[in-house]
Structures are given as structure tokens and as C-alpha cells.
Amino acid sequence: MPATAVPRAVHRLVTLLAVLLLAAGTALCGPGAHAAGGLDTVAEALRKNPVFVDPRAAGQLPPADADALARKIKDADKPVFVAVLPDAPEYPRATVLRDLRTKVGLAGVYAVHLGDAFNAAADRSVMSRNAVTNLVGSVRRTDGDTNAQLNAFVDEATRTARGHAPGSWGGSGKGVGTTGLITGGALVVAGGAGAYALYRRGRRKREERERAELDALRVVVDEDITAFGEELDRLDFSPTETGATDEMRADYSRALDAYDEAKSKMAAASKPDDVRGVTATLEEGRFALATLAARRTGTPLPQRRPPCFFDPRHGPSVQDVQWAPPGGALRTVPACAADATRLASGQEPMAREVQTAYGPRPYWDAGPAYAPWAGGYFGGGLLPGLLVGTMLGGMLGGSPAYAAPPAGPEGGDYTGSDYNPDDFGGGGDWGGGDGGGGGDFGGGNW
Description:
By secondary structure, the protein is α/β, with parallel strands linked by helices. It is 48% helix and 10% strand. The chain contains 13 helices and 9 strands. It has helices spanning 5-28, 39-48, 63-76, 96-104, 129-140, 146-160, 178-235, 246-268, 275-297, 337-344, 371-378, 383-386, 391-397; strands at residues 51-53, 80-85, 109-114, 117-123, 319-323, 331-335, 353-356, 359-362, 424-426. The chain has a 5-stranded mixed sheet with strand order 1-2-3-4-9, sandwiched between helices. A two-stranded antiparallel sheet has the order 5-6. A two-stranded antiparallel sheet has the order 7-8. The relative contact order is 0.13. Mean pLDDT is 78; it is low at 1-7, 13-31, 171-189, 394-407 and 433-446.
């Protein structure tokens, strides 16, 4: 046997052993492992599986539901940790999230259902503080039991979180002797097939989700393209009309090109992120129309400003206004003249609504699926700041497509207890039970 064949054989054996341990670990310690004890026990379990349920809280998340939730997290390959705990002295609300993160020692998103309350926090390298805060708020508004809340949280967290699931979730072992290797060989094929099936299932689910998101975006973008085409029809401009200048003809040509280009890009879109280029093109076309209109009427040319925040179909904004989403803080947003007038008179702006599972909602309250659509209109640096305090804003703030990831380990990386606790935060108070309000995860009131 050539000398190089030995290392290859050893490598293949180690690889097969890892698959074997994955299969054996999953069989011996199910994903939704239940155990008793304090935070040390919880942390030890979460290093092996994404979901832990204290036996005293098993009525809130039965084993079958916990296992299904754990499989969902593993299929998504994201560092999302979930613990369901009783309201007990060994789980102090003021510090439980941060203490749990320290003891687990893995960067990620941590969600805890404690008694009848829910909260979450995350490492900034995995998800921004705003993203966690908005996600927690949306979950608390979810109708249903603990299982419904946790599934709603996991669905959105796995879409947004950076990084990958920790390798320790594949099972653990303290060594396998020669006899164990020989005995385990009979399980290698089955274990490998199972691991590959999980990978295929996860990929298939992601593809199905992307197709559904693209279908929803297609409806919205087609409406935008149609609206832009109607604006072109109403323009009643001819390049040969009396008084037409070369600048006017250039503006008109840019608008027509944008209309055709937007249709072509949407027809070729194969994934949700492709929509960003379509709406960016429509924004260019609308600015060209606004410039042409100013040239024809002899008014000052418009400044290059973002489109109207409330509905980009309104065209370029003309001024900045103060506005706050329901339950959110005031912020400065660009608005068209009509919406600025409405706000000044105490009326609500004409917001762009899109379809969601809960009916029509303003696009900023419709979740991360509409991020590519909004990002094309407003650009990466501007949009998260406009949307602070809304669901979409939080998701964008935590998305690598709109903000560079902070320095430090990504999700699933081991940090031990030697990490910066200031980089871990999110939801705020517990929003349930009789805990105090406000504070952060550093140990304030809950």
C-alpha cells in the first residue's frame, strides 16, 4: 500500500466515525432533551442540542413539540438556543439570559421562556440588538401557547441570525475503542444516509421558502412596475414636441429604459435578493420623470433624494418629516409633499401595504421577506436607521446584507466565558409575569 494511502484511509475512518457519533448522539439524547438542575445543567444540554425543557415546565412544551422545534433549528443550521424554564429561584430573571450565555460559551441567539414570560438576547455578531428587540416584541403579540410563541421566534430568528449551528450539536462522546469502531461500522452507512437526508431536507426547505418569498415579492413589484408604466402613459410627452430639449429627451429616455429594464430584471429574478435590483431601477426611473417634469414646467430641478418612505410609488421625497410607528419612537423620514401635508394636519400617511399571513400590513411591519424590495429603493446604509423600532428595521439591522457584521466570533463559535458582555443584548423586559420593566441583559430589572 502506498505511504499516502494510510493518511487517506485514516481520514476516511475519522469522517465515518464523526457521522457515527452524530447518529448515535441523536438517538441517545434527543433534540429536545429534558433534564433537571440549575443553569449548569441547562448550559450543558444546550451545548449538545438547541432546545432544553426543564421537567417542571414540560407542560408548556411537551417532548414531541420540543423535538420538532429542535429539528427545525438544526435544519436551518443557525445558532439559536431555546430554554423553557419554570419561574424558580435557580433561574433569576435579572441575570438568567446573560448567565446562560456565559455558561454555554457559544455565540448565538438565546431565547428563554421563563414561567409565563418570554425574552431573548443575542451576540451582536449574530443578530443586532434592534433585531432581537423587534423580534421579541412581535413574538409577544403572537396569539397562542408557548409552542406557538417559540416556533414564531425560531422561524424569524433562523432567517436573520448570522453564523452556523455549533458542531457540538452533532452529538458527543469521550472516545471509542477498537471494538467500538468495529461495532459502529454497521451503523456508518445508515448514519451517513441520515445525515445526508437531513442536509437535503434543510436545503429543500430553504429553496421552498425562497420560492414562496419571491412569489410574494413578485406581486408587489409587478404592482410597482404597473404604476410606473401608468405614470409614463399620463406624462403625454413627445420628444419631438415644441420646446423639447436634449435634456428633456435624455430624461424621458432614462425613464423608458428604467421601465423596460425593471420588467426584464423581474422576469429573470430567481431568488428574493434579485428584487433589490428591480426596485433600485424603478427608483432611478421615477427620479428621471421628476426631473423631466421640472424641466417642462420651468421649476427648480429636484434634489436627488430617497423616494417617499411611506410609499416609494409616490416618487422622490421633497422634505424630511418626523414620524413614529405605532409604539415606536420618533424618527426623521423622507416624505412626498402629499404625505408631509397629511402628517402636518394630524392625519396618517398613505402607507404602502403588502399582504402577510395576518392580512394587509404596512411594508415596514411585514417581516424580513420584504427587505430586498425596500433595500432597492432606499439603499443599504439608509434603511435600517429609518426603520428602527419596526419589525423590518430590526431584521435589516441584523442582516449582513445591510450592515457589516461586528468583529468577533460568528454564531456557533466557541467563546467560553471570556467574551464582552456588552455585545450581548436584545429584548429588554420580560413582557409577562410580574417581572420589572426595562433594563438590559446585563442585570437590570426584568
